[in-house]
Amino acid sequence: MKGNLKREIITTSDGSTTIHFPEIDEHYHSKHGAINEAKHVFIKHGFDHVLATKTIKELNILEIGFGTGLNAFITCLEAIKINQTVNYVGVEAYPVAIDEIKQLNYVAQLSEQDFNVIFDAMHQSSWEIQNEISPTFLLTKRKQFFKDIKDQNHFDLIYFDAFGARVQPELWSVDIFKKMYCALGDVGVLVTYSAKGSVRRAMQEVGFVVERLPGPPGKREMLRATKKK
After folding, report:
1. Above pLDDT 70, what percent of the chain?
2. How many domains does the chain divide into?
3. E-strand spans in 65-199?
4. Residue 24: inside a domain, yes or no?
5. Of 213, 217, 190, which Cα lies nearest the Cα of 47?
6. What residues contact residue 55 under an 8 Å CB cut-off, 6+ apart?
7. Is residue 122 part of a domain?
């Protein structure tokens, strides 16, 4: 769907940019703050939570919707700061064009100009192979539809950052969450910005233990799901 829609770069409430699809009024990141959402949902309640609950030599992360690379970039910065090895797999059926990536201001908004080369490397690196972005961050980008994911018992953490259920309900179905459950190892964690009741029930149906957590700016709640032992 993304490939057929008009796209525009907009500035969100925290000053960071995102890509907007005006025909369906959907965004890659929250209009209330792209960076704030990424830090709150995926870093605070995902990355930090997992590392606080168990010791992991190499943290395996799957991102559902690599998109602009914002979540991967912030995760890489965090991994460098704490010297945590991360194997990161980003799945994206419709890669963002480089000319759009150049219009995004994440490096400047994060005041991380020294790491501009890392953000560029993430987007210039080859697809379908593992790339060493930094000594602590290995990135594999897979051009793949979510329904075709077949990983088994591998990931410690999933960033579920698909287009919203309002516009693509099929991405938030029981069938997709079964694939997510299977892709996680024991006590693996999935975090998402969504808090819809239908999403929570789909997660619970496949066996996840689901928590409602305070949401990022502009959202009252978000969800974190943990795979049972």
Report:
1. 99
2. 1
3. 85-91, 130-134, 137-142, 155-160, 184-192
4. no
5. 190
6. none
7. yes
